[in-house]
Amino acid sequence: MIIRQTYLNQIIPLIDKNLIKVITGVRRSGKTVLLSQIQDYLLEQGKSREQIICLNFESIRNKDYKDGGALYDYLISTCGNSKKKTYIFLDEIQMVDRWEEVVSSLLVDIDCDIYITGSNSRLLSGELATLIAGRYINIHVYPFTLSEAKKISLENNRYTTDEALFQDYLKYGGLPMRFALEEVSVEPYLSDTYDSIVTKDIVKRYKIRNADLLNALLTYLMDNIANPFSARSIVSALEKNGIKTTVSTLISYIGHIKNAMIIYPAQRYDIKGKKLLSTNEKYYTVDLGLRNITKNSETIDYSKLYENIVFLELLYRGYDVRVGQFNDHEIDFVAYKGQNREYYQVCYALDSEKTVEREFGNLERIRDNYPKFVISGDIPDFSRNGIQHYNILDYLLGRK
């Protein structure tokens, strides 16, 4: 696997700081490998193997430590008398009862540096999580971006051109392990990963009684990435397919799906009124491979795929991303980082004057000086009136 330097650059300055490093991300996004890379860095810096303790709670060998008390006793007995700092790595910590009490107490009781991972976004939102409030920092891990996929493809000589890599990425996504598989094995791997997320991270965790409704809802959301809709409109759409539910049940299920981090919401933002809107948010999938494995329709909407990829890329680059609303016109993304703001329009091709006017015209209506971009699959540069046009491959691979 490639070195995930973007994440290491966030973590390395935090080593030996009295903060719990919390690494979150969807199942199979590479969190465990990142933990190994942090450990390798520590060894390179002169730490000894004896100073490092790593427990993966998906392994049956660690089943006895899924009780918080047993885990605490084990760690105290193992490293409590050490004269050197201990580096503790706890993988998939959400499987441990009262884990928050354990890590909170360890910070006080022994000289240690703690790293934990979890596959649920509610890891830090429960009542017990208040025990570590102000004493942790969260690093969110995504599947491979296209630039990371290119690095690993250069190692295995898998793709002859960037365009071939991109088409493969559109179909199979960026889950790291799938790049180690032959193509014939990729779809079964994606299907198994999807089933694992649904079963372990949603159905079992939240004791879902109607798994058929959950699967129908998730399939609908995956099939309609980048479309704005409300809970009531989804209820109506499901009822047309013979699946009855209520708005309250649907909202609850959508919350569970978002917590499993297989779907990300993008709220609508009124650019002119400078306020968030509470209706018709959009959803994007964490990985196009997981989305395509569930897709019902045979039609490929490349504009939606492009929009999803750009959304994930912006998140990976550290932006807070919303869907913009300016009067009656939609701006695909308003991206924030600190005090900086950028506007994005994304489409498959600027193949008509009408499309050009829609994509550029929507941005031209916004009379401020923040950077504005149009991203499409076109090779010619359509930049105009201060709005920069990027070919999507150039943008994703950092060539512009």
CATH superfamily of the largest domain: P-loop containing nucleotide triphosphate hydrolases
Tally of DSSP helical segments: 14
Order of helices and strands: HEHEHEHEEHHHHHHEEHHEEEHEEH
| Beta-strand residue percentage | 15-25%
- Poorly predicted runs: none
Number of domains: 3
User: Whole-Å distance between the termini?
Assistant: 26 Å
Report mean pLDDT, rounded to a whole number. 93
> What form results from the Cα inertia axes?
globular
CATH topology of the largest domain: Rossmann fold
Q: Which CATH architecture of the largest domain is right?
A: 3-Layer(aba) Sandwich
List keywords for this structure.
five-stranded parallel β-sheet, 12 strands, 3 domains, seven-stranded mixed β-sheet, 400 residues, Arc Repressor Mutant, subunit A, 14 helices, Rossmann fold, alpha/beta, Trna Endonuclease, Chain: A, domain 1
